[in-house]
Amino acid sequence: MNGYLQGGLGGSSGLGFNALSNMGAITDVDGSPIDPTQWLEKMFWDRRSWGAAVTAGQTNNYFAREGNNTTRDTNMLTASQFPAGTRVIITTIQVIPAADVTLADLVLLQNNLWLYSYVDEQEGFQAPIWHTPAGAGPSGYTTRNATDIVTNGVPNPNGVVPLATPIIVDRQSTFQIRITSPAAITLSGAQNIEVACRCLVSRRIG
Question: 22, 109, 136, 138: which could form a disulfide with 15 (CB 3.0–4.6 Å)?
Answer without folding.
Answer: 22
